[in-house]
Amino acid sequence: MSYEFDFADVFAAWPELLQGLLNSLVLSALAMAIGMVVSVAGALGKTSGPGWLRRIIDEYIELIRNTPFLIQIFVIYFGLPAAGLKFSSNAAALLALVVNVGAYGIEIIRAGIESIQKGQVEAGKSLGMRPLQIFRYIILKPAIQAIYPSLTSQFILLMLNTSVCSAIAASELTAVAGDIQSRTFRSFEVYFVATCLYLGLSVFFWTVFAGIERAFLRKPTR
Amino acid sequence: MPATAPPAADHALGDTIIEMRHVDKFYGDFHVLRDIDLSVARGERIVICGPSGSGKSTLIRCLNQLEEHQKGEIVIDGTAVHARLKGIEDIRREIGMVFQSFNLFPHLTALENCMLAPMKVRGIPKAEAEATARKILERVHIPEQAHKYPIQLSGGQQQRVAIARSLCMNPKIMLFDEPTSALDPEMVSEVLDVMVELAESGMTMLCVTHEMGFARKVADRVIFMDAGEIVEVAPPERFFTAPQNERTRKFLGQILHAQTQAH
């Protein structure tokens, strides 16, 4: 017996797929932006914060990096309401993505900060700059330049991770594909199209990351 | 003769701007600075030399508290400094420092290196900071390199940008920590020339260096340190021709021999 490919039903659902794609894009971009803030703040706390703060950040990183992302989503979506914190599925998805990427991002940016030579900080100090000014104007940019490839890889992983958010019925691409599949029974066709759309999303984000690098992070050459 | 001999300068000196009294510093058990007494007058030029590990870099790094001292007192322009001093930044911005390894900010151009601190620390408007930076880059003879990044400059040019960066803060004191030690020989003189010009402008300077020609030319006093102590302090004339201490004589013998060989 042979399987007859039929994309007609899947293509007919293109407005839904497009909406799912857009939702995935927005969810990813928001999580990257907020995740970046969390990562920079966390890395600052971890490299120059007081001891108690460093310990809290360490615990957070270990907790997140040693548990599955799906469980983290479930805890936020199903667990936190028990503590009185109730989120919509999309909000829970965003929060879970930020919490997850933050743990990895802090470690990546910390590595960048630690690659900066001590003399840079001393030069800043000797000019009378305050610790936060030294971090912001002297350390941050070279640190991000140093680890930008790792950081963008992590952000692509985040984008791919948005598909796990379908488990709590966040309205992203994988969830939309699942809906179409259960309606049309065209599993191969719908997931094939979804695969292409995710690839397209990856290409889109890599292009944006390369543009950001060209515009803001280009290192001078001899 | 006492270590705190009065300066014998050929130019007018002002009141005391740096005062170190019984300063001790330790790295763990290692006694880096031993009972340092030193008083520097406004406008005075001091050269500090001595074998490596003698504490000379540590001494000047204590003045702006890049290193903490454990005992004794350091007074800069009337304020006693220590690492936990609130507003240590206010002291540091009056003390320029030039490092052996330049420590320019790699992501900023020469001009931006010179503008950053005046804008962020002193709150000077951008246009004014830029005008000052250009003027001072001219003073260190590299106005044409203003838009280059550190990686695009030679060592001598980088060190002159570093000097300009400090001068843009309009400091009262300049510290030099072996400013020519990391340079190729042919670039030493372009940096020393700038330092001589700076000395002639009346800047209070403390230079850790083994450039004895520079010491002869500009120093009011030369300090010799060994094993964390100030062993000898003298005007250059007497320091080089009639050193009192055996350790000074031995050191000078070695270093002058090496420099004659080199030149």
UniProtKB/TrEMBL annotation, chain A:
It comes from the Bacteria. The chain crosses the membrane at residues 20-45, 66-85, 91-113, 134-151, 190-212. It is a multi-pass membrane protein. It holds the Pfam family BPD_transp_1. InterPro entries: AA_ABC_transptr_permease_3TM, ArtM/GltK/GlnP/TcyL/YhdX-like, MetI-like, MetI-like_sf. PROSITE patterns: ABC_TM1. It is found in: Cell inner membrane; Cell membrane. Keywords: Cell membrane, Membrane, Transmembrane, Transmembrane helix, Transport. Residues 21-209 form the ABC transmembrane type-1 domain. Its main location: membrane. The keyword Transmembrane applies. Belongs to the binding-protein-dependent transport system permease family. HisMQ subfamily. NCBIfam families: HEQRo_perm_3TM. This is Amino acid ABC transporter permease. It comes from Bosea minatitlanensis.
